[in-house]
Hints:
This protein is an all-alpha fold. About 65% of the residues lie in helices and about 0% in strands.
Amino acid sequence: xxxxxxxxxxxxxxxxxxLVLGTVGGLILGATPGLSPTMAVALLIPFTFxxxxxxxxxxxxxxxxxxxxxxxxxxxxxSIPGAPANIATxxxxxxxxxxxxxxEALHYCFISSFIGGIIGVFVLIFFTPVLADVALQxxxxxxxxxxxxxxTVIGSLGTTSVLKGLFAGAFxxxxxTVGYNPVVxxxxxxFSEHLTGGINIIAALIGLFAIPQVLTxxxxxxxxxxxxxxxMEQHKLLASLRxxxxxxxxxxxxxxxxxxxxxxxxxGGQIAGLIAYDQTKKFSRDKxxxxxxxxxxxxxxxxxxxxxxxxxxxxxxxxHY
Length: 321
């Protein structure tokens, strides 16, 4: 097969070193709230101008995927998602950490992300031409119904009240309309010149997740003089691996959700994560335990966020050949 011709070019000492360095750097960046995968790739692009195509693409791909995975660290430990794709991770990851199972939650997340990432790579290698043809069929009406699906999914997440969830989805839609209309160029809800560019998703995440968590920590400090943090328990990696592989349903649902959402133009890892979480919850026998520290809520992150931008890149550049 043609892709076998590229394997020797990838598995060289130089490219493997770049892969390791990019992965380590991406994990560090991802664990820092506010530094998104897109920002990390944008910062690295000028450094790739003098590089060969293969090392440059390996570096950008490693940093992007590692940043997405690294965002789970802050999501699980301090309830602040490091990247938009980690929003659903904190719903069960942080409660697990509060129960003294932070290391276990991190094991679940990274093992499932590794499994989903490997499957996602093989899907891209073997099925990208077919998936590109499917993605080209999505027009405005299909994307509209995808948006409606996303709002309805939000209605069943994180709360027992569907009305509260739908209100949160409607509030998110309103926030996305702030700024200039991309079609006619009219201003929408621009009360200050600082809002002309709209509200960035990273800024919204920091405001909705980081600031409330910081205020909670300040309140605990004022009451007891110190923030009650949990200790990282000792948990064997092999035990987590066995427990992870035993939860086949969550892995399968997360992977399938990632593949389906990944071929949709305009969709990203945050949408795949939320849909995978919602579907895993619906198919679980322990629905009431979700949001309170259920391992399946973390494992469903087997959906691989990087599939979406890679597929969109294929559609834009290669689908016409």
